[in-house]
Write a structure and sequence with these properties.
The complex is a heterodimer of chains A (294) and B (437). Chain A is an all-alpha fold and 294 residues long. Chain A is built from 12 helices and no strands. Chain B folds into 2 domains: 35-168 and 321-390, Periplasmic binding protein-like II (D-Maltodextrin-Binding Protein, domain 2), CATH 3.40.190; 171-315 and 397-434, D-Maltodextrin-Binding Protein, domain 2, CATH 3.40.190.10. In chain B, the strands form 3 sheets. In chain B, strands 2-1-3-10-4 form a 5-stranded mixed sheet. Chain B has a 4-stranded mixed sheet with strand order 6-7-5-8. Classes of the chains: A mainly alpha (294), B alpha/beta (437). At the A-B interface, helix 1, helix 5, helix 9, helix 11 and helix 12 of A face helix 1, helix 3, helix 11 and helix 18 of B.
Chain lengths: 294, 437
């Protein structure tokens, strides 16, 4: 009986195998090795001593790590709501069959398929404090001291966050659009009969019905916000000073520039714990607001 | 209900795995990329003679910029050998340092590696990845005097783990046509203050920037005085930064640091498009400028002047560094590998480098003549006459201290911190960094 079952599913497993092998060798094993390395002072070469939890304790004494942690939390706190709200608003607007909505959809999706390097360079030109078009416009409308954008510790992280939202919003907009299209028309019709206006319909029907998608999008954006690296690497290299240094960039610096792989792995595992906690809280919280219509 | 909970937890875990994969990538990706990238490059870049299977194969990794001349050296060497064959693999410039670390850490099948600068030689030597070749050098025919002053500093506790291939050397490049237009005489040995005045004069006369200072070398005056960022005395560091602040922000004779950070301009284009009259930079600019000339992209008269100095520093002093090649400690053919190294870092390599407009580290008269002839400018002889101070010392932890210095310097140069605050913050951070070493 059991053998028969295995035989029945074997083709399926065979199809899964290539992907699973890749996952197993290039993810699962490194994940466990990373955990082991985080308890050592491994330098990538010969030095490999067990140091217990020392790396984890040092994290909290490391002023530099704490700066990058703070930056990362701010980055998450701004880009996640920013992306989710704008994605929903854009999707709702495009779902209303306004003229040219197909073209707009393509426009908004464009940034997500553009190369990060190109995006970083183009935005750097736009952000140029003295010759860039953004400040040119701000000066034109009468702002005498426009922000210095990437060239100031006060605004550099905000500049990166603006670009991040702009870059990813189109991608999540498409997800939300798919969610919108699955909302049964009857709900709106019933609301029309009851005389509800557009705003009421948005808050009482659209948002609750979208909540499973919103939930997923929120989790995905949170996770990606803790992974941010490429944008920082292209636009600021963590500067000016340490103003835009974030967790993964810091991990990269410790691991690759200073070859403290043990310490870098400990940071990576700390990051893992942060995301685990946030995600668990969200799964807890979802009962209160996510509506699966069941 | 229960079932859904289980599914959602599984989903959650799956997402976390993906996340972890993301972070894992930052420490692991080198390995993966490397195996792919490496093989591809290898296929396209090897100079292999198929069919000679008895030959000993030596694998030599370099970064792409070095391919033009090193491949010539390798080709010549391979022709001269019947038992050994060197296989060249060029990796992308930006990724080379990271990939090299992974290669060395993974005990890969590499025999010879190209190494950027002394700091990295030190790192690899301390981690046991490089072969100690001190005795081999002593027993060889190399005349190490020809490596000049910087050779003395290119060792770790009296041991040598690499030989220098070429030498970088900083000088003051200037656009002689812009000087003529402004009616200002050409610069000779200046002090940094005179350089600052000159930049202002040029700016006032031409309406273009007087100079362009690249955003990656801040402690220059300190290096010229032989004091690195890990030196107890930070007065010269402060002086370097104050000079830069003058050029960038006070006189505005150079594109401001804030603007450089924001726009990341290409320094050589700033010079070739005649938007700046002077460019203190390295000898590699010669090759770039020659190339632009040959392509008809520039037609102005550019010249080379001695690097300006601070008061009290010996005239002709500048800075530079060696690029190195070393043998891995895991090689099966140390003798053969050293034989090639001697070829690359000795007279035969030097001739090939000069013909490509590069300054080889083994700089005898012949090298100098070949080089100045290639450049076609008398002023290029400066590179051979200058008193070069090694840009990076071989001290452990230097790289990390330098990064910290640059971060603090940045805040000063964009006007967010005073010089006193900058130096104070840097000193306290330096202390905690050096405790780790």
């Amino acid at each position: 009986m059991k053998w028969k079952k295995i035989k029945k599913y074997s083709k399926g497993y065979l199809f899964l195998l290539p992907n699973f092998l890749g996952f197993f060798f290039f993810m699962l094993i490194p994940i466990f090795m990373g955990a082991g390395i985080s308890l050592t002072d491994y330098d990538g070469f010969k030095q490999l001593n067990f140091v217990g939890l020392e790396n984890y304790i040092n994290l909290f004494k490391d002023e530099y790590f704490i700066v990058s942690l703070k930056n990362n939390f701010l980055y998450t706190a701004v880009t996640v709501p920013g992306t989710v709200i704008i994605a929903i608003l854009l999707a709702v607007a495009l779902n209303s069959e306004i003229k040219g909505h197909q073209i707009f959809k393509t426009f908004f999706f464009f940034p997500s398929i553009s190369s990060m390097v190109a995006v970083g360079i183009v935005w750097a030109v736009l952000f140029n404090p003295s010759r860039g078009p953004i400040n040119g416009f701000l000066e034109f409308i009468g702002i005498d001291t426009p922000p210095l954008w990437l060239a100031s510790t006060d605004t550099a992280l905000w500049s990166v966050m603006i670009v991040a939202i702009w870059k990813q919003v189109g991608y999540y907009m498409v997800m939300v659009l798919a969610g919108l299209q699955s909302i049964p028309k009857q709900l709106y019709e019933a609301a029309d009969i009851d005389g509800a206006n557009k705003v009421v319909k948005f808050f009482k029907i659209t948002l609750p019905m979208l909540s499973p998608i919103t939930f997923m999008v929120t989790i995905l954006t949170i996770i990606s916000s803790f992974q941010v690296f490429d944008l920082i690497n292209v636009m600021t290299k963590g500067g000016p000073g340490r103003a835009t240094n974030v967790l993964v960039y810091r991990i990269y610096q410790e691991g690759f520039n200073y070859m403290r792989y043990g310490y870098a792995s400990a940071m990576a595992y700390f990051l893992f714990v942060i995301i685990l906690i946030i995600t668990l809280i969200q799964f807890r919280g979802q009962k209160k607001w996510v509506n699966y219509m069941q | 209900m229960k079932k859904r909970k289980v599914i959602s937890i599984v989903l959650c875990m799956a997402m976390l795995m993906t996340t972890l994969n993301g972070c894992g990538q930052s420490s692991e990706k080198g390995t993966n990329d490397n195996s792919n990238g490496g093989t591809e490059q290898e296929n396209s870049n090897t100079n292999s003679n198929e069919g000679n299977e008895e030959k000993i194969q030596l694998s030599f990794y370099i970064w792409q910029d070095e391919e033009a001349y090193i491949s010539d050296v390798v080709e010549q060497y391979n022709v001269s050998q019947d038992k050994v064959e060197v296989e060249l693999t060029a990796l992308p410039n930006d990724e080379y340092d990271d990939k090299l670390k992974v290669l060395l850490a993974a005990d890969s099948d590499v025999d010879i590696v190209d190494i950027r600068g002394m700091a990295q030689v030190t790192t690899y030597a301390n981690s046991g990845a490089l072969l100690d070749i001190t005795d081999k050098i002593d027993a060889s025919d190399l005349n190490t005097n020809l490596y000049g002053e910087m050779w003395n500093a290119s060792q770790n506790d009296g041991k040598r783990y690499a030989l220098p291939t070429r030498s970088t050397c900083w000088a003051l490049f200037y656009n002689a046509d812009l000087f003529d237009e402004a009616g200002i005489s050409y610069p000779e040995q200046l002090t940094w203050d005179e350089y600052g005045d000159l930049a202002v004069e040029l700016m006032d006369a031409t309406g273009e920037y007087g100079g362009y200072w690249v955003p990656w070398i801040f402690p220059f005056a300190s290096i010229q005085a032989g004091k690195y960022v890990n030196d107890e005395d930070t007065s010269m560091l402060a002086e370097s930064l104050q000079l830069l602040n003058r050029f960038y922000n006070e006189d505005e004779s150079h594109m401001s640091y804030a603007e450089i950070v924001a726009t990341n301009p290409d320094y050589i284009s700033e010079f070739t498009s005649e938007r700046t009259a002077m460019l203190p930079n390295g000898e590699w600019c010669v090759q770039m400028l020659k190339e632009d000339e040959e392509n008809g992209e520039i037609d102005f008269n550019w010249q080379i002047a001695p690097m300006p100095i601070s008061e009290g520093v010996e005239p002709g002093t500048t800075w530079g560094q060696f690029q190195f090649a070393g043998i891995t400690s895991t090689t099966d053919y140390p003798e053969e590998a050293f034989d090639f190294l001697e070829y690359l870092c000795g007279e035969p390599g030097a001739v090939v480098y000069s013909n490509h407009g590069m300054i080889h580290a083994y700089s005898g008269e012949a090298t100098k003549d070949a080089y100045t002839q290639y450049v076609g400018k008398e002023s290029a002889s400066y590179f051979f006459e200058a008193n070069k101070i090694l840009e990076q010392p071989n001290t452990a932890g230097y790289g990390e201290v330098l990064t910290a210095f640059n971060e603090h310097a940045e805040l000063y140069l964009i006007g967010e911190k005073s010089i006193e605050e900058t130096i104070e913050a840097f000193e306290s951070q330096r202390k905690s960094i050096l405790e780790k070493y």
